[in-house]
Amino acid sequence: MTHSVETNTDTAVDNPLNFRSSRPLLPYGLDMIRSFPVFLRSALYVIRGGFLIRPFVIALTLGIAGAVLSAIEERVPDIRAIVPSVLFPSHADPQVAQAILVSIATSTMTVVSIVFAILLMTLTLASTQFSPRILVSFVRDRVTQWTLGIFLGTFSYCIAALPAARALPYTFVPVLTVAGAMTLAPICVGWLIYFIHHISNAISVNNIVDRIRREAEAVIDELMPDRRCAASFIEAAEPSAQELDFIVASRQSGYIRFVDIGRLRSLAKSYGVCLRLERRVGHFIPEGVGLLRVSRGDRVSPERARQLLTAIDIGPTRTMQQDVEFGIVQIVDVALRAISPAINDPTTAISCVDQLGCILIRWLGRAPPRRYHYDPPHVLRVVIPWSSFDGLLDLAFEQIRHYSIADAAVSLRLMRCLGDIASVVDDPSIRSRLLDRGKCLVADCNGRLRGADIERLRQRLARLEFGVAVED
Fold this sequence. Notes:
3 domains, alpha+beta, Aldehyde Oxidoreductase, domain 3, 16 helices, single chain, five-stranded mixed sheet
């Protein structure tokens, strides 16, 4: 594939990092407006997975419902007749309504305090045993968020309805509102039982790594929607350093979490330049280090450089928005802790190897994410580096291979996983790379495993050489 890059025929910029333009800088507010699409996506990602937004919305909604329902009931007292007298016999004593609302409110807050204190202690122990990075998946757990929201919402509902039950200046009992609180109370009890059941399963290591694997596969599906074909391996030539003569430095330190490729391509076309992202999604970038290389540096003023940077979301922690490697890193962390002498849990490491194999098979089944972006056709605008299969393979298995050479069970499962991956691909180069790693595994285990175990490992290596899935 060939492409053209708009080259710079004017005077080269002597120091691109210190380039200045005579045009005034854009106001900070305008920068925020132009970066709104990236900000909105990051905000939506936090809302979907954050531990604050969903419980707050649920609590606020139920609190407003309690206040509005009590106000409507006071204006239209006839609606109280729909509440059976058996459920609420005292329609004239506000003290009974106050006692019910106060009891439900205090009980829910007591349960929230105790349950979530125990939950935090459990998560602390889980993060110590498995990996602190798995806390991200617990924070994104929707059942936990709904549990907190329902309990806090019940409390808010009761507190908002409580002022309506009064004896002065006239007696009023919000019967329907109190009945609503009495309905929320058994709902909270049932949800609490379900939450205990859910969290007891959620802290199981198999469920933890399975959830991380599903999140990583969802990222792969979004980044790589097309099936792999022979044309997927064709790549264009990289622009040279002479063509990309201008450097745009990062204005903050952090991890690259999301790149708005469409906005970068649109900006590059409007400026008449070509640009290349210097680091991949998930990599750390210090402030002042070059993040973008751009052609035609004379066309990139400081305000234009800021606009380019607004298309890249940088934060203090990695996320799973576009970062498949982060999912692999979490599972590898769990596996390494499991095979450490302090824990010595090869069964957990085997589960991690199985899930890593699923991620790599999903990756191989899809066309690689687009690296080169053109607008118009054959005019290269944006180059985005992505992880290669070799990089993902090393990230997934190299550390596990290094630390498991004395563990027969993990080494055998690792060899079987390589065979599973080889059995689903037809590309000889990929099979060759898998075979090389299998040979390295056997070489490392020589002298460390018993004769029967090393023989089984060699048999699986032989099956790997023919691209056949290994059977136990």
